[in-house]
Write a structure and sequence with these properties.
heterodimer; A: 434 residues; alpha/beta; Fumarate Reductase Iron-sulfur Protein, Chain B, domain 2; Rossmann fold; five-stranded mixed sheet; four-stranded parallel sheet; 24 helices; globular; B: 459 residues; alpha+beta; Uridine Diphospho-n-acetylenolpyruvylglucosamine Reductase, domain 2; Uridine Diphospho-n-acetylenolpyruvylglucosamine Reductase, domain 3; Vanillyl-alcohol Oxidase, Chain A, domain 3; seven-stranded antiparallel sheet; 38% helix; 20% strand
C-alpha cells in the first residue's frame, strides 16, 4: 500500500503534463495501434485518462494501466499531431519508469539491461559468441535473449524472418579511430548504435567511406554504449542513466563538431530523451548532457546540411533502380527530418525515388513493442509492406536500422525479394573504393 | 452482477467485444467535454447490424441506459454514459456500403469516419461538404446525431442538409426505415428529420443515406486584416449584401491572432483587431469575379491588409492561420473550454463586445474565433480546471455568454449539441412547452428511458 502511495506521488509530478490533454481525441486519427484495435485504451487520450485516474486513486489496478501503456510504439504520432501540444512521449516514458519501479523489472529484462547493456564489452563478447553459434543455441538461451531489449535479438525469435547477426560486427571490421579534419573542415563523432554495430555493419562502413571521401574527420571510440532507449522504454531508468553516463565519459570531452548517427532512434533518443531525463541530474551533468545532445545529427541531415553533398557525377547505364523511402517515426515525427534522406538518395542518379502511400506511417516495430505484441506489430507492418510493394520498387530505403529489421521481416514473410538499404549506403555506392 | 452482464452481451457480440475491466470502464467514461466522467458498467462493440439490434433490445429488457459512442469527440457531454450503463461502440460498424455516382448519394454505417468518407467520395469526383473540426476522427453516426456543422455551413449547409434517409433501431430492437435514395420522397413521416440532432435519445442508428453534390471546379482564398472589429463585421455584411455567398467566411479576434502568431509565426500583424478568412468557390469565371468583388469590398471598407492566394501553396498558407487557431489557444492554459453560442451574423459585433466585457468581469482569458458567415462563434475560455475558484468563474461566464446570445436572438449551440452541458439552459431558449413536448415524445418512444438519458432535455 505504501508503494501505491509512492506511485501516486510520482504520478502527481507529471500532473501538469497530464492535465494538458483536453480529450479532443484527435490522436485517434494518427495512432497506428488504434488503427488496428480501435480501443480507447490504446490511444494517447485513453492512456492519459487512465494515468489521471491512477493519480487520483480512482483506479486501483496499476497492472491494467501498465498493460495499456505498454501497448504503444512510442512512435510519437500522437504528440506530433496533438492540438494542445501534450508531451505524450515524455508522459509515457516517465509513467513506464514509475510503474516499473512499482512492479520491478521482469527478471529477464533485468538480466539483459543491468547485466549486458551496462557493460558494453561484455555485451559485445556475448553477441560475438552468439553470432558464431547462433544456429546451435539452446532454448533457454533463446528465451533469455528473445525477451530482451530492442530488435537486436529479434532474429532469434521463432516465426520471424530475418538476417542473422553479422558475422563480424562493425567494431571488428572497422578499427577505433580518431582522424583529423580533412578538406571539409568538419569532424564527427560516430555513434553507430547497437543495431548497426551488431546487425548492419555495412551501414557503418558506408558512413566511414562517405566521410573519408568528403574529408570529414571521424572520432569513433569502441567504448561507446547503447543510447539507452530499450531500457527506458521498459521503464528501467537506472540502466538508462548508467548508459548515458558511460557515453558522456566517452564523448563529452572529445574534439568533434557533430555527433552523427545512422540510426533514427538513437538520434531522437540523444536529441530529445537525454535532456528530458537529465532534468533531475546535478547541474553540471545536466549541462554536459544538453551540450552533447545539441550536437547530435542524423547522417543524411549532416551530409546534406553540413557537408553539402550534391548529386554524384557517375555514369548511368540502363533503367534506374526504383527505390521507395519509409520515414522512421523517430526521424520525421520526432525531429522533422524527411527531406534530407530523400535528397541523399537523390544524390545517386542510378536510383529513382517512387513515393509510397503513407510513407510516414509507422512500420510497427517500436523497439520492444514488437516482442510483447508481435501480432499487432505484424498487422501494422503488413500495411507498410503492402504500400512498399505497391510502388513496384526493388529497393526499400529507410534511415533507421530498427525499421529495417521490421520491414525486412514483413517483406521476407510475404516472399518479397526487395533489398533494404539505408540512404547513406545508396549514396556511398557512387563513391570510388570498397 | 457484472460478470453475469458481460456474459449476456458476450453471447451477442462475442467475447473480445465486451469491455468490462476497470480500465476499460474508465476509458469509456468521458468524451471531449469539460465535464466529470461517469462510469459505465461495460462497453460493447457489435460487429454486425443484427448484433447492434440485439444489444439495444437487451438493454431495454434489462432497463440499462445505453449511450452510443463513435470516437467520443463530443463537446457537450453527449457521449458521457450513465453511471452503470452500457456504452455501444460503433467502431466495428464502419463500412461504406455504397457510393452511387449516377444518383449522387451514399449509404454508410454509423462508424465510418467523416474524413475517410469525404475522401472516398472525392475520389469518385463528388463532394460531401460538412467538415466539422473533428472530421479526421469523428464518425458519420455522431455527425448525424449531433447535426454537426463546420466551416462550409454558410454556403453548403450542415449535416442535416445531407441526410436523405436512414434505418435505426427502436428500443425493442425493431429496425425502422425512413427516407429513401431518391431526391423526392414523401413516403411516411419524416422520421430521419427527427433523428438528426437527437443526440442518441430516440433511436440507435444503423445505416445512413447521404446526399452528395458535384464539387466546385475552382476556389480562391484570401485573408483580410482589420484594425477595427466594426469594419470586419461591416465587410461580412457587405459581402452578403452583394449577393456573394462564400464557401467559408471565418473570423479571428485580436487575442487569437496574437496567440496564433506566437505559436505558428505565420506573419500575422499582432496589432490587428480582427482577421477574416474568405474563400469563394464555384465555376472558375464566377470565382474570379466574386474574388475580385470581395477584395474590392474589403478595400473599400478599410482592410489594412489583403492577401489573395495565387496558388495552392499560398492558399494553404492562408488557411494555416485558421487551422492553428484552436491549437494555439489550447496551449495557453491547461484546460480549454470551447463554446459555440451562435447569433444572427449581423449581431457579431455586439456578441464580440459582450464577450470582451465578460472576460473582464470574470477575470478570464477568452479567445474568440469562428464562422463569421453564419454567426457561429467559438469563444474559447482558457483556464485550469484544477483551480476551483477560477473554474467557478468560468461557469458563471458561460451562463452569461448564453444569456447574451439569447438576448441577441441567437441560440445556445450552433454545432456542438446540448448534451449534458447545456440542458439546463434549454428552457431559456425554447420554453417549458417545448421541453414538455420533447419529453412526451421521448417517453412514448423510449418508455424505460434507456436511450442516452439525461441529454438534451435533462430527463
Amino acid at each position: 500500500m505504501s508503494e501505491m502511495r509512492q506511485l501516486v506521488g510520482l504520478l502527481k509530478q507529471i500532473d501538469d503534463q497530464l492535465v494538458a490533454c483536453m480529450r479532443c481525441g484527435m490522436c485517434q486519427a494518427v495512432c497506428p495501434i488504434y488503427a488496428e484495435t480501435g480501443l480507447e485504451g490504446h490511444v494517447a487520450r485513453g492512456k492519459i485518462a487512465l494515468l489521471e485516474c491512477l493519480a487520483d486513486e480512482v483506479i486501483r489496478d496499476p497492472a491494467g494501466v501498465k498493460e495499456r501503456l505498454d501497448a504503444c510504439l512510442l512512435c510519437g504520432s500522437c504528440q506530433a499531431n496533438c492540438p494542445s501540444g501534450v508531451k505524450a512521449l515524455d508522459i509515457f516514458l516517465k509513467a513506464r519508469a514509475f510503474l516499473t519501479g512499482y512492479y520491478g523489472l521482469p527478471p529477464v529484462k533485468r538480466a539483459i539491461f543491468r547485466g549486458l547493456l551496462q557493460n558494453p564489452k561484455l555485451f559485445d563478447t556475448v553477441l560475438g559468441v552468439a553470432s558464431k553459434f547462433q544456429g546451435l543455441f539452446t532454448k533457454p538461451v533463446n528465451d533469455m535473449l528473445g525477451s530482451s531489449c530492442a530488435r537486436v535479438f529479434s532474429d532469434l525469435i521463432g516465426g520471424r524472418h530475418f538476417a542473422p547477426l553479422a558475422d563480424k560486427p562493425l567494431h571488428d571490421v572497422a578499427t577505433q579511430r580518431d582522424t583529423p579534419r580533412g578538406h571539409s573542415g568538419l569532424k564527427i563523432a560516430f555513434f553507430y548504435g547497437c543495431v548497426v554495430d551488431k546487425m548492419f555493419p555495412r551501414i557503418g562502413e558506408a558512413v566511414l567511406k562517405v566521410c573519408d571521401h568528403h574529408g570529414v574527420g571521424v572520432f569513433m571510440p569502441h567504448a561507446q554504449a547503447c543510447c539507452g532507449i530499450p531500457a527506458l522504454s521498459s521503464g528501467d531508468r537506472e540502466t538508462f542513466e548508467k548508459l548515458v553516463a558511460l557515453n558522456m565519459k566517452v564523448f563529452a570531452e572529445a574534439d568533434f563538431d557533430v555527433l552523427v548517427t545512422p540510426c533514427a532512434t538513437c538520434t531522437s533518443t540523444i536529441k530529445k530523451i537525454w535532456p528530458l531525463m537529465a532534468e533531475d541530474l546535478p547541474a553540471t551533468t545536466r549541462f554536459q548532457v544538453k551540450e552533447l545532445s545539441a550536437k547530435v545529427k542524423d547522417i543524411s541531415a549532416f551530409l546534406i546540411q553540413d557537408v553539402g553533398v550534391t548529386p554524384a557525377d557517375v555514369a548511368v547505364s540502363g533503367e534506374p533502380v526504383t527505390v521507395t523511402y519509409h520515414d522512421p517515426c523517430h526521424l520525421k515525427k520526432s525531429l522533422g527530418i524527411s527531406a534530407e534522406p530523400r535528397a541523399l538518395i537523390g544524390c545517386n542518379p542510378r536510383y529513382k525515388l517512387q513515393e509510397m502511400d503513407g510513407a510516414d506511417s509507422c512500420c510497427g516495430s517500436g523497439g520492444s513493442f514488437t516482442l510483447q505484441h508481435y501480432d499487432l506489430s505484424k498487422r501494422i507492418g503488413k500495411r507498410k509492406r503492402d504500400n512498399i510493394v505497391a510502388t513496384g520498387a526493388t529497393v526499400a530505403a529507410t534511415s533507421c536500422p530498427a525499421c529495417m529489421l521490421q520491414i525486412g521481416d514483413m517483406l521476407s514473410q510475404a516472399g518479397d525479394t526487395l533489398a533494404i538499404r539505408h540512404p547513406v549506403e545508396i549514396y556511398a555506392e557512387t563513391l570510388a573504393g570498397r | 452482477m457484472s460478470n453475469h452482464l458481460s456474459q449476456k452481451f458476450e453471447e451477442i457480440v462475442g467475447t473480445g467485444n465486451v469491455l468490462a475491466s476497470e480500465v476499460d470502464r474508465h476509458n469509456y467514461a468521458y468524451d471531449a467535454a469539460v465535464l466529470p466522467p461517469q462510469l459505465p458498467a461495460l462497453a460493447v462493440r457489435p460487429e454486425t447490424p443484427e448484433a447492434l439490434g440485439r444489444v439495444v433490445k437487451t438493454c431495454n429488457e434489462l432497463g440499462l441506459p445505453l449511450t452510443v459512442r463513435g470516437s467520443g469527440t463530443n463537446l457537450s457531454g453527449g457521449t458521457i454514459p450513465s453511471e452503470g450503463g452500457v456504452v455501444v461502440l460503433t467502431g466495428a460498424l464502419n463500412k461504406i456500403i455504397e457510393i452511387n455516382e449516377a444518383d449522387m448519394y451514399a449509404v454508410v454505417q454509423t462508424g465510418v469516419v467523416t474524413a475517410k468518407f469525404a475522401a472516398e467520395v472525392a475520389k469518385r469526383g463528388l463532394f460531401y461538404p460538412p467538415d466539422p473540426g473533428s472530421q479526421a476522427v469523428s464518425t458519420m453516426g455522431g455527425n448525424v446525431a449531433e447535426n454537426a456543422g463546420g466551416l462550409r455551413g454558410l454556403k453548403y449547409g450542415v449535416t442535416k442538409d445531407y441526410v436523405m434517409g436512414m434505418s435505426f433501431y427502436d428500443v425493442d430492437g425493431e429496425l425502422v426505415k425512413t427516407g429513401s435514395r431518391t431526391v423526392k420522397c414523401v413516403t411516411g413521416m419524416n422520421l430521419h428529420g427527427l433523428m438528426v440532432g437527437s443526440e442518441g435519445t430516440l433511436g440507435v442508428f444503423n445505416e445512413i443515406i447521404l446526399k452528395l453534390v458535384p464539387p466546385p471546379k475552382a476556389s480562391k482564398a484570401m485573408m483580410a486584416i482589420f484594425d477595427d472589429l466594426g469594419k470586419a463585421s461591416e465587410t461580412v455584411a457587405a459581402i452578403i449584401a452583394a449577393k456573394i455567398v462564400p464557401a467559408t467566411l471565418e473570423y479571428m479576434d485580436d487575442f487569437t491572432i496574437k496567440t496564433v502568431e506566437d505559436f505558428a509565426h505565420a506573419g500575422l500583424p499582432t496589432d490587428a483587431k480582427a482577421l477574416l478568412l474568405i474563400e469563394v468557390d464555384g465555376h472558375p469565371a464566377q470565382v474570379e469575379d466574386e474574388a475580385a468583388e470581395v477584395e474590392a469590398i474589403c478595400k473599400r471598407i478599410g482592410a489594412t491588409r489583403i492577401q489573395v492566394a495565387k496558388d495552392a501553396v499560398e492558399r494553404n498558407k492562408v488557411w494555416e492561420a485558421r487551422r492553428a487557431a484552436l491549437s494555439a489557444l489550447a496551449r495557453v492554459r491547461p484546460t480549454t473550454v470551447l463554446e459555440d453560442a451562435t447569433v444572427p451574423r449581423s449581431k457579431i459585433p455586439a456578441m464580440v463586445g459582450a464577450l470582451e466585457k465578460i472576460a473582464e468581469k470574470y477575470k478570464l482569458t477568452i479567445g474568440t474565433f469562428g464562422h463569421a458567415g453564419d454567426g457561429n462563434l467559438h469563444p474559447t475560455i482558457l483556464t485550469d480546471k484544477r483551480d476551483h475558484a477560477e473554474f467557478a468563474r468560468v461557469e458563471a461566464a458561460i451562463d452569461e455568454i448564453f444569456d447574451v446570445a439569447l438576448s441577441l436572438g441567437g441560440t445556445l449551440s450552433g454545432e456542438h449539441g446540448i448534451g449534458m452541458a447545456k440542458s439546463k439552459y434549454m428552457v431559456k431558449e425554447v420554453g417549458q412547452g417545448s421541453i414538455m413536448y420533447a419529453k412526451r415524445l421521448k417517453a412514448a418512444m423510449d418508455p424505460k428511458n434507456i436511450l442516452n438519458p439525461g441529454k438534451i432535455t435533462g430527463a
